[in-house]
Structure formats: structure tokens, C-alpha cells
TrEMBL record:
It comes from Chara braunii. SUPFAM superfamilies: 2,3-Bisphosphoglycerate-independent phosphoglycerate mutase, substrate-binding domain, Alkaline phosphatase-like. The lineage of its organism: Eukaryota, Viridiplantae, Streptophyta, Charophyceae, Charales. It catalyses: (2R)-2-phosphoglycerate = (2R)-3-phosphoglycerate. Belongs to the BPG-independent phosphoglycerate mutase family. Pfam families: iPGM_N (PF06415), Metalloenzyme (PF01676). This is phosphoglycerate mutase (2,3-diphosphoglycerate-independent).
Amino acid sequence: MGSECEFALKPHSAIERGKPFLLIIMDGWGENLEDDYNGVHMAGTGFLKSLKTGYPDRWRTVKAHGTAVGLPSDADMGNSEVGHNAMGAGKVISQGAALVDNALANGNIFTDAGFEYIKETFDNGGTLHLIGLLSDGGVHSRYDQLELFMRGAHERGANKIRVHPLTDGRDVPDGSSVQFVEQLEKDLADLRAKGCDARIASGGGRMHVTMDRYEADWKIVERGWHAHVLGEAPHKFQSALEALVELKKADPKTNDQYYPPWVIVDKDGEAVGPVQDGDAVVIFNFRADRVVELSKAFEYPDFDKFDRVRYPKVHFVGMMQYDGDLKLPARYLVTPPVIEKTSGIYLVKNGVRTFACSETQKFGHVTFFWNGNRSGKLDDKLETYFEVPSDLCPFNEKPLMKAREIRDAAKAAILSGKHDYIRINFANGDMVGHTGVFDAVLDACSVVDECVKDLVDAIDSVGGSYMITADHGNADDMVQRNKKNEPLRDEKGNPLPLTSHTLAPVPVMIGGPALPSNVRFRRDLPKAGLANITATFMNMLGFEAPSDYEPSLLEVVRL
Ligand SMILES: O=C(O)[C@H](O)COP(=O)(O)O
Ligand SMILES: [Mn+2]
Ligand SMILES: [Mn+2]
């Protein structure tokens, strides 16, 4: 981690160390057009609105999408990984999506060690299995990357390919799985025309099958293991399209996110693509959080989170290495972004006592992503990480989620006098936003407003300071729109829900008794993004930020 003096920070010129500082991330909370579909605006969010209108020098927005957070283009919505990486690290880092694009464009993905490793199995007649999220959401994966990879792998000797797609409906509209499966079938047919035995083998909805995160519910991964690896699922079909249509007919309430697991079988009822000894397995998601668990199931011989029944000997690689601390997986196709010298490391090296807390769904966001995709603590003595277990139901059913429990834990941390820096994430705007259920979003945003107010009161009572911000938009626009930005409706006239993140900038609010009255936001950084947050909160903790960080948003004015 380097020497102490390499990390020494100078004291800030106007802000003293010593009083508690609270950093709140409101996940999925953008600053957007204030119309009837903006859940943040329509909810009871009077306290946050009062900070906007009451303190214009201490309220602003920053960019949270596209190139400002290291994504390939400004058409890319922000997401939790890139947002928390940027806020934790103080720099704009080229992220997984961009790195995979580069590796495909320059061909390195097919010449580096990870591909060499899987290629060994092609030469021995092994099947290439591809497991991952099937959409063009660009958050966890992208379809065009899968297509290019399949084609390139076939050109380099993969003669049998089995794809195990997970349907999305979360980063893209619900129902779009049909188009993506049709596109995949077309591209697989092209491969078959070239002599490759290429087929879809199994799948399911991403929130019910395979893509759990932060060990919220291992059963999700177990279902995936049974379908993808063992070739077993309660629902068997002859084609993936048939699976989507028939499963929806049988349960109209199911959707792309929550499809049950399914397996494709041949005319004799045999699964067409279970994973066997000698095969290659690639997870084609570039983002880590929702594939760490499946990677462990493939990689760890002594795995005990569920009974794998059969543990095939395969050549397993991730699109990236998903956990830099655990070196998981050991083999990967594209080298992950280097995220070093994060704010967390600087702050512990300067003796800052940190309390980081969220509920399970976002716990790794304020720890793992925050620390540059490292799973462990940076300093056992100075840091306390506290996880509130999340509910296991769809979050529109319990939109308050664990906001009040997080508030209570953070409040106790503030009042205890044991922590200098309290960092929390409220999941509601995002997790309920992804359900597309507008009334639930209203409850989700209101409870965040209530909890933020209580915590600002607690900070006031101990003479501390606070920053409230967000990682990207979501609840701030809950309707799909046409190119003119007009809401789209179904045949009954109901608005078509938007389940994904938005491109909106996010608010940043600062205040509290410890913030000197002559400190306010600069007016000369209109293009600032999430990476500018970092130097700003390091200032609020009493330090000048490292010189290679994006500039602080603060200025000290003469009164
Ligand atoms: O994984 C998810 O839940 C979504 O794809 C992205 O949401 P997040 O980036 O807010 O986690
Ligand atoms: Mn998020
Ligand atoms: Mn989200």
C-alpha cells in the first residue's frame, strides 16, 4: 500500500479536522425534468427540496453518465459501479465496457493469456459456454461484444458454442428480451452456416437466476448452476423464444428480470448444453458485482454455498478479473481498470476513522466499489463496515427497504464520537426505480427524504458537516419516452414504465455547522462529474486532496 509519507495529506486552508463528516449517497437519484413521471419530484421530498432552494451556494449538480465517468460514450447511462468507483477514487477511470471495446477492436482479447487458456479446450473438442446478461444495457454486458467475441472465437477454433443468456428488463425495457433472443438466434444461425454447432442452451431472468450480488440470496446462483451447468430446470423447451413466450403465457406476471430458469432440450428431451469436463466457460459480463458468486462456484474446489452436485473440470475465465483482492477469477480475458490510491487509502493512512454502511443490495457499493473493486477492509482498526440485511422480495413490495435501519445505524455512529467519516448509501430510489412501479417509487423517495433529514439533524447536533449526493439517475424518470421526449403509452393508455437508470446529472448538497460560512461551491466547473466529489469531501474532512485528483468543487471566499 506504499509508505505513510507517500499518502500524507496537507491540512485544508479553511476547514479543520475533528468534527464528524457524513456522506450520503442516494442511489438512483437524478436531477431531472420536474414532470409527473419524476418520482423524486412527485414524492414527499420536501427536506431535500428545501436544501436546493434554501442554499443556492451549496447546491449544484454533477455529471454522472457517459465519458464523465469513464464509459465509452455520452449515450451510456451511469451505474453504481462506475459511479462509486469514480467517487471513491477521485479520477475518471476507463471502465470495463470501454476496455472490452478496445480489446475487441485491437484484437488483444484473442491473443492474451485468458483466450489462450480457453483455446486449449477447443483443440480437444471442448464446448465453449458463454454465460451472461443478454442486452445492450452497457451496465453489466453488451450484446455487440458477445457477438464479436463468439464470431472471433469460432474463427480461432471454437466449433461448438453454447450460450446461456440471462434476460434483462432492468437496464433495458421489460419485454425487450424477445428482440435480443431473436438477434442472438440470427447470429447463431450465421455461425451454424459456417460450420459451428452453435445454440442457446439455458437461461432465466437475471434477478431470479444466476446474477445475485453481495451474497443476498445464493439460491439465485444455485438455480443458475442447475440450469447452465447441470442442464436441469423445471421448465424445458425446444427454443429460447418458446421459453419466453410460454413462460409469460403461464404466468403473465413474470417479466424479463424474473423469468424462472429454463433449459433447451432436443427431441429426446436431453439438455443440449450442460457443462462437461474439458469444456471452456466464459462469463461475458464485464461488471463484477453480479458475477462474483457464480465465479466462486466455478473457481473454488471447496465451495460450500450450495451443493453443486457435479463440479466439471473446465477452463473458466471471466470477461475481466472481478475481484482484485481475491484475484477472482484467476484467468480473465481483459485486464480490469487499475484503480489505485483511492480516497479510502489516503484517509486511513491519515488516521481517519471510517464507518461505512448500507443494506446488502448496496453494501459492496460503499465498500468494494468505493475501494476500487477490492473486497477487504483497508484498515481493520480504523474502519467499521456495517451491513443491514436486505429483504428478499421484489422491492416494490417493500419500498421502504432498510432505509430507517441504515439511518439508525448512521445516527448511532454520528452520536458515538467514534467515527470521523460516516459513509452510507440509501438503495431505495434505485432498487425500487428498477421495478418500474411508480407508487412504490413515491414511498421509496419519501423515506429517503425523511432519513436524510434525521441524519442532517444529528450532524447539526454534534457540530459536524455533511455532503448528500447520488451515483446516477433512476427514480427521477419513470416513463419510456419517444425522441421528442414525450411519454410512451400502451394500448390501454397506461404509461410504459422505465425500469433503467437515466442520463440525468445528480445533485450535490453540502452543509452543517462545521463548514465555515465562507466555503461554497465554485462557479467555474460547469462540466464537473462524480470524480470531482472526492476532492470535495476530502476537503470537508479537513485535508487538501491529492494533486492528481479531479479538482474540488469548493472555494473559500473572503467575507
Ligand atoms: O445490477 C443492477 O441492479 C442494475 O443493472 C444496475 O443498477 P446499479 O448500477 O444501480 O447497481
Ligand atoms: Mn446505483
Ligand atoms: Mn441501479
